[in-house]
Design brief:
The complex is a heterodimer of chains A (114) and B (112). Helix content of chain A is 0%, strand content 54%. Chain A contains no helices and eleven strands. Chain A is globular and about 40 Å long. The N and C termini of chain A lie far apart (36 Å). Chain B is mainly β. In chain B, the strands form two sheets. In chain B, strands 2, 4, 5, 9, 10 and 11 form a six-stranded mixed sheet that branches. Chain B has a five-stranded antiparallel sheet with strand order 1-3-8-7-6, with no helix packed on it. In chain B, a hairpin with a 6-residue loop joins strand 4 and strand 5. The chains are: A mainly beta (114), B mainly beta (112). Chains A and B meet through strand 4, strand 5, strand 9 and strand 10 of A and strand 4, strand 5, strand 9 and strand 10 of B.
Chain lengths: 114, 112
């Protein structure tokens, strides 16, 4: 059963530290998304890629967040420097382009910034 | 600016009864709608979808209704089962575009 893999599952860090979250999309999926879940906003789209090219990162605070796809099997989301308000669960999802194939989500990285 | 709204943060329903979860949207360009289900410590999983050319889509115990004039959709679960206890997210998109806009979620609790 193919699934999206996210690491780490949990991360606790101090304010000002760099945080890197990783995602391995489902093999063959060419579209990758980063979402953040907060109580107030629900699931917010931070950025997404198609065929490794960034399509939309308008949801991301660009002064501290960056998202990349070094290759088709790895997507990364970095926060530098991290702040307490970044505490949330970060989800990666992948999909196959064409029509509206459902997004497949990983189990998330729970980030706590103290 | 929340384009997809789920105004009920939580809902409790007796096992065997009908659960109705509601969702409103403001962007009239949305023409494809989905429901996702999320258990604790897991990612959301796709449940059911509907395009704007339909007003109803059914899959087993799950039915989604779309009222385009009211910009409103609902998810009906009947009969409700304890395994349905989860957070349900409504999402919207433009057909052919994978980018989804999600609501804030409704926590459904089924009481045995």
């Amino acid at each position: 059963d193919a699934r999206v893999t996210q690491t780490p599952r949990h991360k606790v860090t101090e304010m000002g530290q760099e945080v890197t979250m990783r995602c391995q999309p489902i093999l063959g999926h060419n579209t990758v998304f980063w979402y953040r879940q907060t109580m107030m906003q629900g699931l917010e789209l931070l950025a997404y890629f198609r065929n490794r090219a960034p399509l939309d990162d308008s949801g991301m605070p660009k002064d501290r967040f960056s998202a990349e796809m070094p290759d088709a099997t790895l997507a990364t989301l970095k926060i530098q420097p991290s702040e307490p308000r970044d505490s949330a669960v970060y989800f990666c999802a992948s999909a196959l382009t064409g029509g509206n194939s459902p997004l497949h989500f990983g189990n998330g990285t729970r980030l706590t910034v103290t | 600016d929340q384009q997809v709204k789920q105004n009920s943060p939580s809902l409790s329903v007796q096992e065997g009864r009908i659960s109705i979860l509601n969702c409103d949207y403001t962007n009239s360009m949305f023409d494809y709608f989905l429901w996702y289900k999320k258990y604790p410590a897991e990612g959301p999983t796709f449940l059911i979808s509907i395009s704007s050319i339909k007003d109803k889509n059914e899959d087993g115990r799950f039915t989604v209704f779309l009222n385009k004039s009211a910009k409103h959709l609902s998810l009906h679960i009947v009969p409700s089962q304890p395994g349905d206890s989860a957070v349900y997210f409504c999402a919207a998109a433009n057909f052919g575009n994978e980018k989804l806009t999600f609501g804030t979620g409704t926590r459904l609790t089924i009481i045995p």
